Amino acid sequence: MKILIAEDEFTTRMMIQVCLENWGYTVTSVTNGQEAWLKLQTKDAPTIAILDWEMPELNGIDVCRRVKEMGLENPPYIILLTGRDSNTDIVRGFDAGADDYMTKPFNDNELQARVRVAERLVRTQASLTATVSELKEALNQLEMLETGVEVCDTCRSVFSPYDGEWHTSNDIITNDVDPRFIVATCPDCLQK
User: Fold this and answer.
1) Is residue 140 in a domain?
2) Angle 87-96/60-70 helices, nearest 10 degrees?
3) Percent of the chain whose pLDDT exceeds 70
């Protein structure tokens, strides 16, 4: 699983990176919020991001807000790791879109536990998204089966609601214009 670290302080960034790599994660690290924002917009963006609140160019809160505004189906799980520990700051972090909040200095065991929770949630969300997609496809298939097929009683053309056109059976077979029709060979023709 890929994890992004956005931390401008070298020692903290390296400590987090070493821990994560020792636990088997693929890590990308950046030194400011703008770089983090760019990484999180890529097609193969990390699924977990550990962001410092106070960074050059864009702070962690701004990155959280921007990610939230993207409206992704599976947004990255964001952990804010910061020296800010007031209740007001914690609430501001969650309101901005952070999924978890840790204060510095961090404890390795706590970080590992929180990253494992993040990993489980990311995997669960991906699984749910795939299941919803499959269910939508199944519903579309059911709707197609429930609607009648219009056939002209004179020329035997078939109306396709997908393109609003009438097609001959040959068009349907050769051009695959209507997904309701599955082309196969019947048993009698197979024996010939």
Assistant:
1) no
2) 30
3) 98
